[in-house]
Amino acid sequence: MDIPAPADRTHLECEVLVVGGGTAGTMAAITAAERGADVILLEKAHVRHSGALAMGMDGVNNAVIPGKATPEDYVAEITRANDGVVNQRTIYQTATRGYDMVRRLERYGVKFEKNEHGDYAVRRVHRSGSYVLPMPEGKDVKKVLYRVLRRRDIREKVRIENRVMPVRVLTSEGRAVGVAGFDTRSGGFVTVAAGAVILATGACGRLGLPASGYLYGTYENPTNAGDGYAMAYHAGAELSGIECFQINPLIKDYNGPACAYVANPFGGYQVNADGERFVDCDYWSGQMMAEVAREIASARGPIYLKTSHLPDETLTALENILHTTERPTRGTFHAGRGHDYRTHDVEMHISEIGLCGGHSASGVWVDENGATTVPGLYAAGDLACVPHNYMIGAFVFGDLAGAHAAEHHHTPDGLAEDQIADAHELIYRPLRNPDGPPQQQVEYKLRRFVNDYVAPPKTARKLDIALETFERMRDEIASMGARTPHELMRCAEVTFIRDCAEMAARSSLLRTESRWGLYHDRADRPERDDDEWLYHLNLRKNAAGAMEFVKRPVEPYLVPVEGFTPCPAEPVLLGAYGTAGPARRRAGGRLAVEAIGRSPRILELLRLADGEPTLDQVTPYLADADPKVRRAAVATLTETAPRGVETALTRALADPHGTVRRAAATGLRELVEVLPATAEFGASLRALSGHPGEGQDGAADPVVRAAVLDVLRALRLGDAALFEAALADADTRVRIEAVRGLVALDDAERVALAADDRDREVRVWAARGLGVIGLPDGVPAVARLVADPDPLVRAAALEAFAGLGQALRGEPGLAETAVRALADPAWQVRVGAVRGLAAADPDQGAGPLVAALADPHLDVRKAAVLSLSGWAARPEVAAALHAALGDSDADVRAYARRALDAARADTAGVPARV
């Protein structure tokens, strides 16, 4: 391709420019538009499928839901996880605004797991705080957001430019005024003038090299190469915590998450080769990763995600998440090794290093509104230094940045031609040397040096070698060759990676201590030094082009945290290091996007989905002779959700082809939060339920019948008679939805009818449901289920005792039943009995629970500690908990320690740590 002249460029203008169409960028664009700003959203891929959220998310890791957790608890937890070096004001934004964001996303159509009563089903994964909120349809999050972006009121204010990659933020008199970049399909040069710029480009996922050696086999999204880190740095913004790396647990030989957040709520856990839980640290932090690394290297390694003990139904549900939402190739990977979660636990390892604010603490320095130290420049999402911010934090700070930018943008006077020329040279120099070293070769070499000399454990000698190497590679990177726009993009990304590698090495060298566990493990400086280093280490590019460091004091905490006391001080300047380092489209026109596909009708639907199609526009495709077209039409309706979508999807439930019916069922479940709960819609669904009195024979497809019941329950359009009739359905999935519907109605009498179901899974749901309802009407059925021949049913029934509480007071024999169950040969039954005894009278339950602390199975002992926690003030319980501090299982030790700490705090009259 030819090199365009700097003046031969497409020039765009807006009030608010958002760079990056992922989680934070999409929300920033939506909010800025809602505040009345004229917005341009640039994405180097395509907004519909871009960012770390592109494949969806299995759950929210940090949902502070009222009644489940408090903002103060969450802020304290993140402060401890980050060894005290935090700006609590930013974390507090996520903690206090996260719940409203969850509800906002829900209004958009994002689904979060709820119980039968419509309450958020928040899970506890860590030992303190319940913050994890599963997302059963999490794979569709990005699709939902794109649907909002294409809504008419938003589309009128947001111009999306896909396939445009900025490489530099342009500034004027110290203020951000736009960007310079190029079209990754045509190669055309692009400049944008803006009143404010929001960077939301994600983590630097391609910093270290994966063990596989595959450049793009990274834990983080491999398209996130540190673009925003480099652009913010060259614009003069401060970055912070770049020495605090992101290192994650992952599946050995497969760079996918080990999924503790998914598997642990289902009953999975991490063990060493001896089958013991070994992590004493509470939060998934650098300290925890240090323990993981030590265990792998010890005689007790390797380590595993234990799943083989779980029942088949649970593993099927787990696979549905891990093999679809998380990584579609994960099932293929396990199958290729002949492994199955039922027979093989999953070997775990640790990832390559990266930079990420959302999962660690390395990012662009921002205030409570996402504003950086450069006026007019904002950062949000994994790029921003808001420690352990995760997905909800990305949404929150995207929203904050969008709102603030919309209110404080300034029209630029013009763009600096010298900066534009520099950006032009950065982009197109590989074309001048097409036979130069290929990008893949140079990037591999660069990232191998990162692994060898920057990855923990760090030493000053290795970091010095790294810096010498990165400086030497400037010329090699500048000599890379390219021939196509795609290769230009990859070459530009290598420059970003080199910038991030230098920042990481210099920051690691200056912080002369160890902190954050494995994230900043200095083998030559092994001790933490709070007197000298309870500070933020910030860096920036100074006027001479050198990397300058500032030691900033940690601001006084909003939430006091034991063990950390920030001291007021003035920022200290530590010094400066290094040196500065084909066909074109018509000006002002929309950037061309290539359509790829086979069926013309499906291509037409894809084009419709880019706008805001009406139901009438999509309806003809629902009648197409080709079931693939009809299925695509259903997908388009689900993505765009036009007025009347519920009627069309309901009709599609009766389609003659199974894939179409199931797509419609999936669509209704996905959109349930935004569907109208009208009597007419309810009647149309009831007609498909397949049960007497509904006016039609119903759907023959059990997937449809189950989906119908699920939607009726969620929208409160079903009644007890309907759900009771569904208890006689031939399909297990339908009967489970019937039980859930009756639980939502608190109808213990009818739920009890399922206690005699032929399928174990239905009986388990019935037992759990009766515990949730907690009414005396359920006690006789639970008493029957306690004697069930299946151990999992008995376990669920015994656990239901805790929910029935006062209702059991009139059934004294059931407590003795739970005590006898502590001798059951099935460990699951013993766990259920221990959990159920938590509701017993302490005089009756404390003794058996203390005895259960000697159970041979670690999960029984863990459950016993948790059940005893409320009685820790009793002398015999306190003595037993003290003995449990020496247990071989890390969870047992940790929960015993927490229970004793809470009891001491209660005695002293001070708040306990939760």
From TrEMBL:
GO biological process: anaerobic respiration
Annotated ranges, domain Fumarate reductase/succinate dehydrogenase flavoprotein-like C-terminal: 445-559
Ranges in a coiled coil: none
Keyword set, alphabetical order: Flavoprotein, Oxidoreductase
Record-linked Pfam families: FAD_binding_2, HEAT_2, Succ_DH_flav_C
Domain of life: Bacteria
Keyword Flavoprotein among record annotations: yes
Single GO MF descriptor: electron transfer activity
Residue stretches making up the FAD-dependent oxidoreductase 2 FAD-binding domain: 16-386
Gene Ontology cellular component terms for the protein in this record: plasma membrane
PANTHER family: BLR3196 PROTEIN (PTHR11632:SF73), SUCCINATE DEHYDROGENASE 2 FLAVOPROTEIN SUBUNIT (PTHR11632)
The name this protein goes by in its record: Fumarate reductase/succinate dehydrogenase flavoprotein subunit
The species this protein was found in: Microbispora hainanensis
